Amino acid sequence: MNTAWLPVKDGDHRAYAIYRRHYSATKNPNPKQRQFVGPGQHIVLLTLRCDALFVWRKFIDHSGQEGVNCAVFRNEGRQLSSDLILDAEQWAAARWPAQRLYTYVNANAVSSPNPGYCFKMAGWTRCGTTKAGLIILAKPARGRIPTAP
Predict the structure, then answer these.
(1) Relative to the CA of 67, which of 88, 112, 137, 149 has its CA 20 to 30 Å away?
(2) Count of domains in the chain?
(3) 146 vs 114: CA distance, rounded Å
(4) Could you tell me the residue range of the domain that residue 35 belongs to?
(5) Cα atoms found within 13 Å of the Cα of residue 24, Cβ hemisphere only
(6) What is the pTM of this model?
């Protein structure tokens, strides 16, 4: 797989440092545990330059969404975020073939006038909003006809 990403363990200090700067990070000033992904199956990806983080999670999502969740994506480097997303999709497809991909975007926590723009540029579409007001973006599994979430 030709990719910008390397898999690392949950709790990797470089990945954890980037995670702490993500808007969804728990802001405990003195964390005792460096693991941040949560329960379920997961893939933690870090770029070679350690300037971007992507986390895929497969778990029981109580919001009703099904598939593989992008739990964290943060790009602090110069690579186009949409290119990084497309590369990360290869990892999810290899581990969980024929699965829908989805993520949540908090429009109030990002500075973009078009929240989720980088995902949209990677072919993701808006498919709803959670009860808490998060935007749901999704991409159907390759080779499958999209179904309603």
Answers:
(1) 112
(2) 1
(3) 23
(4) 5-139
(5) 16
(6) 0.86
